[in-house]
Amino acid sequence: MRIEKDVSVSTATAPTGPVRSTRGSRLASVAVASALFMEFLDSTALSTALPTLSVAFGTDPVHLKLALTSYILALAVLAPASGWIADRYGPRRVFMWAMAVFVMASVLCGFSQSLTQLVLFRTLQGLGGALMTPVGRLIVVNSAPREKLVSAMSWFTMPALVGPLLGPPLAGLILGVADWPWIFFINVPVGLLGMWAVARFVPALRQPDPGPFDKKGFALAAVAITTLMGAAETAGIGLVPWPVQLGIALVAVGTLVAYVRHALRTPRPVLDLRLFKVPTFRASMMGGALVRMGLGATPFLLPLLFQVGLGWGPLEAGLVTIGTSMGAFACKPVAPALIRRVGFRQTLIASNLLTAALTAVPAFFRIGTPVPLIIGTLIFSGFMRSLQFTATNTVAYADLPKEAVSSASTLAVVTQQMALSVGISFGGLMLHVARGGGDVRLTPERFLLPFLAIGLVSSLAGPLFRRLPPDAGAQIGGRAAARG
């Protein structure tokens, strides 16, 4: 199925020049993935260090979710402009500058003296990430032949999985022999190496003129995203008075409605909501958002469960946590063949059922739970999540024309990051409720409600995936070719 004729796009992104070979697109995918490696290394290491930062800054562990959500908020706010910026100034140039901003902000994070400063500099990191993630995906999708898109996306995400694999034990090791700022300083050599790889292997694609920037739409979207995420962050935990929370929620709803009306009347809106008319894109975004709520909450909840609830040290917790990344890493080489054999629809339905169940399992981890059982559960969970997101991220582009890729990539990043942020806030809220809203010690039993809740939310994606036709995405998964 092709996109409906009345769907206009924000930018035109088909690259000019010769079509890249499979090997060339693979090298570009791996080079661009160096940025994702740096992002994931940073975020997973920070998650492991949250209990240490709680002591260093003298704040409640639950409030430290601000260090995670501030980054995501900045990313989600600037990301709507990323497609236009990439088309206007060139994807490779924008990508390189974004990496430079991220590295500089990492250094500033290491010099933070308070939670406020850390949140500020994490926000600056998010501005860099806002351009790295969607522009990187844009480069990969435009560099790969359409029938090789699943393989290209797997190569694109595989190096990024090394970040979560190394992040937790690296954070534990750093906290054992040095101080927490080195968690951020490690991004400097990684970022410089990544910038060299991008300059070496990513082509300088020439983009057509994207036209005028949708300033009104960007302003409305920025306010809507900020207030929506602000309402989710402050809901139910007493950070601000309830009248303020209500005011934030009303502003969020009002600006969201105003943006929807604007986007449907504007030829080139900064976030093209008409793309949701495409069934595969709609299922990917809406179903994927529900699953990502669980993904966002897990890196926040697991380190607290292991280090505060079970009393483990940072290194021990980090070594166990890499089970999730090991499973995800193991899935990537087999995901394309599995999707080709089973199809996108069946892959999404089955992986969602197992992912939701495995997301909830840590609710039952106790001091006496065998460590091998915990590690095995996390490995299997990582495998299924990786399969879920490989299928979800790829099927989004199945029925979109090439010129819609930039708009779709931008909208996808905003949707995904908002889901991650809401997931962190939701997990924090459930933990706050589970301990009665006070400063009660975080025993393992207090994590029962949070993990069960995020598992339930993740499972709600299943009915959305069941609405897809049996042959959804066949032309990009290689299934149709294999049958022929």
Strand and helix map with partners:
Elements: H1 22-57, H2 65-78, H3 82-89, H4 91-110, H5 115-143, H6 149-177, H7 182-185, H8 187-201, H9 215-234, H10 242-265, H11 279-309, H12 314-331, H13 335-342, H14 344-360, H15 371-395, H16 405-434, H17 448-459, H18 462-466, H19 474-477, H20 479-483
Helix pairs in contact: 1-5, 1-6, 1-8, 1-11, 2-5, 2-9, 2-16, 3-4, 3-16, 4-5, 4-8, 5-16, 6-12, 6-15, 9-10, 9-16, 11-12, 11-14, 11-15, 11-16, 11-17, 12-15, 13-14, 14-15, 14-17, 16-17
Region (Disordered): 1-22
Membrane topology: Multi-pass membrane protein
Main location: membrane
Describe this protein with a few key phrases.
73% helix; mainly alpha; membrane; transmembrane helix; 20 helices; disordered N terminus; globular; 0% strand; 484 residues; MFS_dom; MFS_trans_sf
What is the structural class?
A: mainly alpha
Radius of gyration: 21 Å
Helix content: over 70%
Query: How much strand content do the residues show?
Result: under 5%
Low-confidence runs of at least 5 consecutive residues: 1-21, 478-484
Number of helices: 20
Largest sheet: none
The beta-strand count equals 0
Order of helices and strands: HHHHHHHHHHHHHHHHHHHH
Estimate the mean pLDDT confidence: 80
- N-end to C-end Cα span: 19 Å
Basic shape: globular
Main location: membrane
Transmembrane segments: 62-82, 94-113, 119-140, 152-176, 182-205, 246-264, 285-305, 317-335, 373-398, 410-435, 447-465
Pfam families: MFS_1
Domain Major facilitator superfamily (MFS) profile: 28-473
